[in-house]
């Protein structure tokens, strides 16, 4: 069982890449573009990623952000499953406290039935939005309770995925369908796969929990770089072998943008940084164009934020990005790098993944 589970988790590095490379998609919507445009770009990137040997493609749950059209990961993943055939697809992540565990088990059981053996279930405990929106999602203003209950919610979700509540449990006769219960029904045949569960985090809480449970761990380096090494150290120190993994496996999300020339990379990341300035100051909107960002009058405090933010975005030519990714992997010991390209235009994001694939000599397009 451990070997089969680990096989669906651990990837294979291609070309000269030091570890497997994957994609994290925020389904960003630029000014002058629509959510339809953004979702079409996601299909294009997923197809390119599959064609060039990227290992997995995850989408992240966000809410009430005009520039991020990924509020419904399961829906997007179903769409991507219909347009791909091999690449692993998953959530990076679904915010567990926003949902009933049974609902997530049903959604991802359905995705597993659509794309057998290539679905990942990444889970986070943050709301993926502001407090007021989280309250609207959960129909309660007791938000701390959701985070504090995360280990219990996680255990319940895994029970639903495995259909193994013990006798006497109030949920013993409740089954997530599609799921294992179908194999125990008369004439039933069930897929041997079930989505591997990953824990996501930007601090030590999920790192320790993932290690204790022997689960794979994904760290949000792209927005919490100062915590990356301590969290990965904590994960490895806490790790206990399980039926899922016999050794730790950690990926990190990395903001990376490659362009054909260095100047264009600086223009693009400035626009993405302006988008973050607006989000952090309560003014979320569409991702601005590079021209808008160049004309924007940044305050001294905003300039300081932009410099700090962009210091953790690996950007430039393909060779510069490759060098930055190699250095980051050596420094963190990450088992996998999951790249997120934030830019105004979908064509720029698509080109970035293509350039990085070329720089590492990933498989040539079919």
Uncertain stretches:
none
Question: What's the helix count?
Answer: 15
Taken from the alpha-carbon principal axes, the silhouette is globular
Major sheet characteristics: 8 strands, parallel, barrel
Strand order of the largest sheet: 1-2-3-4-5-6-7-9
Quickly give the structural class.
Answer: alpha/beta
Looking at this protein, list some descriptive labels.
366 residues, alpha/beta, 15 helices, 45% helix, 9 strands, 8-stranded parallel β-barrel
Quick gist of this model?
With 366 residues, the protein is an alpha/beta fold. It is built from 15 helices and nine strands. Strands 1-2-3-4-5-6-7-9 form an eight-stranded parallel beta barrel, surrounded by eight helices.
Element layout with pairings:
Blueprint: H1 2-7, E1 21-25, H2 35-52, E2 56-59, H3 73-83, E3 88-95, H4 101-114, E4 119-124, H5 131-138, H6 143-148, H7 150-162, H8 181-184, E5 197-201, H9 204-213, E6 217-219, H10 228-238, E7 250-258, H11 262-280, H12 290-295, H13 300-310, E8 314-316, H14 318-332, E9 336-340, H15 346-359
Parallel strand pairs: 1-2, 1-9, 2-3, 3-4, 4-5, 5-6, 6-7, 7-8, 7-9
Structure characterization notes:
- The chain is of the alpha/beta class and 366 residues long.
- Helices cover 45% and strands 13% of the residues.
- It has an eight-stranded parallel barrel, surrounded by eight helices.
- The radius of gyration is 20 Å and the shape is globular.
- The model has no long low-confidence stretch (mean pLDDT 93).
């Amino acid at each position: 069982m451990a070997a089969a589970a680990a096989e669906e988790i651990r990837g294979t590095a291609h070309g000269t890449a030091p570890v497997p490379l994957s994609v994290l998609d925020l389904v960003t919507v630029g000014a002058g573009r629509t959510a339809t445009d953004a979702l079409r770009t996601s299909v294009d990137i997923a197809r390119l990623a599959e064609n060039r040997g990227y290992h997995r493609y995850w989408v992240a749950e966000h809410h009430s952000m005009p520039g991020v059209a990924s509020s419904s990961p399961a829906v997007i993943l179903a769409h991507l499953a219909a347009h791909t055939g091999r690449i692993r697809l998953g959530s990076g992540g679904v915010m567990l406290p926003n949902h009933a565990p049974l609902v997530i088990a049903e959604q991802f059981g359905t995705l597993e039935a659509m794309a057998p053996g290539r679905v990942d279930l990444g889970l986070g405990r943050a709301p993926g939005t502001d407090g007021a929106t989280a309250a609207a999602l959960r129909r309660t203003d007791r938000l701390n309770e959701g985070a504090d209950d995360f280990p219990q919610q996680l255990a319940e979700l895994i029970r639903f995925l495995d259909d193994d509540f013990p006798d006497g449990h109030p949920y013993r006769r409740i089954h997530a369908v599609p799921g294992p219960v179908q194999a125990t029904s008369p004439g039933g045949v069930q897929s041997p796969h079930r989505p591997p569960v990953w824990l996501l985090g930007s601090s030590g809480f999920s790192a320790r929990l993932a290690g204790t449970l022997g689960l794979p761990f994904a760290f949000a380096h792209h927005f919490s770089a100062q915590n990356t090494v301590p969290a990965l150290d904590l994960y490895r120190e806490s790790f206990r072998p399980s039926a899922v993994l016999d050794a730790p496996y950690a990926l990190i999300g990395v903001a990376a943008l490659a362009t054909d020339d260095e100047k264009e990379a600086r223009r693009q990341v400035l626009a993405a940084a302006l988008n973050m300035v607006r989000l952090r100051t309560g003014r979320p909107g569409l991702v601005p164009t590079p021209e808008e960002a160049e004309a924007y009058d940044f305050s001294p405090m905003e300039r300081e934020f932009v410099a700090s933010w962009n210091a953790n975005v690996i950007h430039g030519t393909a060779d510069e990005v490759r060098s930055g990714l190699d250095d980051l992997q050596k420094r963190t010991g990450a088992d996998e790098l999951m790249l997120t390209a934030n830019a105004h235009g979908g064509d720029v994001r698509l080109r970035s993944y293509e350039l990085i694939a070329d720089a590492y000599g990933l498989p040539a397009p079919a």
